[in-house]
Design goal:
With about 180 residues, this protein is α/β, with parallel strands linked by helices. The chain has helices spanning about 25-30, 60-70, 80-85, 115-125, 130-135, 140-155, 160-170, and strands spanning about 10-15, 35, 45-50, 70-75, 90-95. The protein has one domain (about 10-170). Strand 3, helix 2 and strand 4 form a beta-alpha-beta unit. Helix 4 (about 115-125) packs parallel to helix 6 (about 140-155).
Length: about 180
Amino acid sequence: MSGVHEDPRLFTFEMHQDDPSKCTSAKMRRLGFARPISKGAIQRESIVLNPGGREPVSILDRPLALQRGLVVIDCSWAHAQEVFRVHFKGIQRRLPGLLAGNPTNYSRLGALSSLEAMSGALYIMNFKDLSVKLLSIYKWGETFLTLNQDALNEYSNANSLEEIKKIELEFFPNTQRA
């Protein structure tokens, strides 16, 4: 189907650990960008964003995101280590280094909202239009892009996991990644 523009299905597994009025994954769902998913319904080959994942998301994940979707696990940062100790089905991917643009964690490395994580992953997998559209639902969304534009462009042009890791260290030399 040459010329047909496709976007992946986006899913949110919400743990309901934060203030519902500030929950970015709930807003993605309410506005029709994402669908709720239960833990058991996550498919084995879905891309699951996990801050503790060993490998970074990359362009190589694009085909599986199109086929099986992209899942964000929405939880409080205060409980993230505990939440991600539990096994979630799917292919676990972390975001390479990115700075938060949200007001709560502004400019903190890796302290992304669910919306920023989803948008960053989409951008890196070259779903840039959807990434920007998603960020537009918050007035601070543009800030996320401004803070990370150069890194996101480099990550999205990388052709291997090794390239992503190298770029990450160039932009964020103090990151300790395996």
